[in-house]
User: Fold this.
Amino acid sequence: MTTRGHTQSYGAPGQEAAAPKRPGRDRYLDLLRSIALVRVVVYHLFGWAWLTVLFPSMGVMFALAGSLMARSLNRPARGVIKGRLRRLLPPLWAFSAVVLTLLFAGGWNPSKDPDHSGFWGLAEMVNYVIPIGAPPFPWDIGSESGLLEATWAEQAVGPLWYLRAYLWFVVASPLLLWAVRRAPWATLLAPLGLTAVVGTGLVSIPGETGNAVTDFAVYGGCWVLGIAHQEGLLRKVPRYLAVSCSTALMAFGLWWASGHLGPEGWNLNDIPPAQAAWSFGFVVILLQYSPSWQELPGRLARWDKLVTLSNNRAVTIYLWHNMLIMATVPILDSLYELSFLQSDTAVAALDSAYTILTFVLVWPLIAAAILAVGWIEDLAAGRAPRLWPDGARKRTRKRPVRRGSSRP
Amino acid sequence: MASRARRPRAATRAPEGSPRRRLPMRLLLPLLLLVAMTAMLMLRGYVHSEILADHRVRSEAGSDKVPEKILRGGPVIDTRNGRVTSLKVPDHRLVLTFDDGPDPTWTPKVLDTLKKHHAHAVFFVTGTMASRYPDLVRRMVDEGHEVGLHTFNHPDLSYQSDKRIDWELSQTQLAITGAAGIRTSLFRPPYSSSADAMDDRSWPVTERIGTRGYITVVNDTDSEDWRRPGVARIIRNATPKAGKGAVVLMHDSGGDRHQTVRALDRFLPAMQAKGYTFDNLTEALDAPSAHTRVTGADLWKARAWTFLVQASDNITAVLVVGLAVIGSLVLARFGLMLLLSAVHVRRVRRRRFRWGEPVTEPVSVLVPAYNEAKCIESTVRSLMASDHPIEVIVIDDGSSDGTARIVEDLALPGVRVVRQLNAGKPAALNRGVANARHDLVVMMDGDTVFEPSTVRELVQPFGDPRVGAVAGNAKVGNKDTLIGAWQHIEYVMGFNLDRRMYDVLRCMPTIPGAVGAFRRRALERVGGMSDDTLAEDTDITMAIHRDGWRVVYAEKARAWTEAPESVQQLWSQRYRWSYGTMQAIWKHRRALFDRGPSGRFGRVGLPLVSLFMVLAPLLAPLIDVFLVYGLVFGPTEKTIAAWFGVLAVQATCATYAFILDREPLTPLVSLPLQQILYRQLMYVVLLQSWITALTGGRLRWQKLRRTGVVEAPGGPVPRQRDRGGADRRPVG
Assistant:
């Protein structure tokens, strides 16, 4: 194993600024991010708790983000943080504008909402613009008979915690990077220790601050792992040592989970120490075997465009997917109105296929969202807006020839 | 490589054995075995209610949808063909009903008591118990009792789907048919009590069961014997008022039922004296019997079911015995290894311990090489640093990658290259021996790196004239990867503790090809290397033993070898080793009946080697099968505790071995993972070797794909001396 150079695939920082298309993206990391995104959507759709064990998406996404952040931090920290915020916030604003419009149209008045009244309640509205904490939303809006479920606001706004945590991590990154360089092991393990304190009920911080601190602790390990990976720290550990220790940590996570099952059973999201341990170990193994692909190998190559697209529109997909899942409900409900689907057997078939139909329907909706608001990500990044950035080359002379040969 | 694979050899090749057909077969057989074993264990877990069991019980619900006449009616509810009627048992007749059986302890006693007092009763059996104890069901039917269904594994049916209910009925019916050859039309729902306790949840189930042709029998007199309230209390509970008839609920299973049996023994004669008769249900109602004979295909299907359940119970029992055998074998081996290694260490690390006169005579080092271009240079250069006088003979076995040329271009003093057409490693070694000038011959592999002192340490035991061959201490050079670390543990623990043990027992089975030394006379007396087996090193070692020589272990003669880095390479290496060991044992089987040293080896060495290297690993999968079974169905915590117990024993042994070898202990962190990934690979390989041996297949021998890693950090030999350097691993 003399050559395990994942870093070579990344361009030097100066190169990145010069070439906006980033010639050397590591497709392995891209693939992981795509899998994580799809897993999140599927999980929010079907609600299968075991998916959180199968692939700890949030941990993987934070690790990837941490790695990219550390890579950028070769430049002055202030500029990097500014750049991150500039890229993150406009897509959020678009989302917030739509959600707030819907909420206000639904008759929500935050100043009269008993949960969010008063000065602080209104101050929380700032979180729709800069997600320092969780934005306020009504628990019930509209009526049971309305188009959307009454709890749609919670569902739609729920995923925003990720942006809040991301923001915290981005701001903390210069400090974390410094700490990783000074005391790598202590920094790697500190979030796990913090989780043991705030995630087990040993110390409980009330309210939204508590949530923020817990999330920071639970996923902090993964973020720092990303930094350590970028710094080349992980490569210094013999693979057997890393894999063995992380397997032990994951086993501990499962064991802890088995004794602290939440209302949804094996849903690690409800069990902070288990989530922290499992995600940490999982990410260590994924990064240890990080093969550094210039392009997707073998059979994975056919997913190339989707991987590229989902990576270019990760924020859009993440922000909008839950709301779009909500939006499938009224669309599917309208099927029951169709005249040829009125028989009992047809209704029964619709009932049994409902979740599957949701699953089928949500992807076109996500595609529509990408078309509608995805370009904001490009604007935010200071690029020319693109409608459908799946990495396909612009029509060249070769294309008709290739098509002709493969499809007679 | 191809030519090596087609070396002319013992023509044991199966005539139809084309590689394309043989390979799936080898994978298929272990797989089938595993599937069959798993299926049997699943079946057992299933009829022992360890899977699919549902212990929820519905709390009471409203009863406004239950017909009034049912709520006020008798305990025998008939909802067949849209009827809604219920019956009471006539006066002075008692129908005893026993639930949840048959039980191997208490049901025979209940039956004995009933027989003694000439009473009949109804047994509501569960499918699981009826499948496991078919003889008792048959006895019930033969002695005039009626049996009824009490579902397969006793769930609360109001929670179950229609499909599941149908399945519960038919599966239980299958078990009863398999046991006694009859069908029954009586049914009692689990957790039922009396007719007036019917509610909106259980009534639809009762109606549904009626449509399937069953009469639902609840009770009107509950003896509450399951509470074990004392014999007198059971009798009082079971006695109906004023000579009325009754369906009495009792239990013959689910715990200690001696109170029930003793109560019966008093209750029956007392009530008979009051003019009661004890009939089965249809007798009491003067109705036709609830049993109908089953014949034909249905009967055979049911018998097959009963047979399978019995078989699964028996097979599990056999497997448990096997597990005990393998458990004690493993522990005995560890104990023996620790004890004898300690003896060995005490012996050879004694102060002023000497084999004899110090051996200073020059030595011939043979390096058979086949396509070793990547490694050969560091191999030869490491020999140049030797602190013992040597001549090096590289035998190039028809390499196609210029191995010989590389060595010649080095132009090192005292290094000769002998070329031959590709003829295999044994032939190359024999050629080397023929070319060797000295009487002591060291053999090593082309991918192995010696320390400067290795040769000297390796030949010192020849100071004792009885020693004919010496095994060195082979070590894994590339141990940073998981698979490397696992092999490192295996080498240090398995091979080196093993070698000490076998040294003390004087039956060392193998001198590693990577580092071993021979007396030329010993080699010549046994006729040199042979290509009868795939493990020529094991074969020659056994032959030398049989010739009366001692074979000892030189722990300080360390050689760093490159271990396979992919599962596939490891697989083919181990396949060759284990199959070759089997061949060698078979080749030397006659030593069992020889006299003298050969006989001693045959009667001590061969059985030990066969037991530990060939038979024990065959049973090893049982550990994992039961681990999985225990985790899924069984007492999960105890299973995990037992697993950690075994792990602790292994960790102890491994730690001891590492300390003896003065190795850092960190690679031992991969020991737990080794237990759940690596060990299984090893026994699947062994299983395949067994199948190859039994089917007479022949093995292609695949060469390791070298990466040349072992040489990588050290580079030029002189630098290898300062092994404390921070920038490199302690690998030559």
Observations:
- Residues 1-23, 395-408 of chain A have pLDDT under 50 and may be disordered.
- The longest helix of chain A spans residues 344-373.
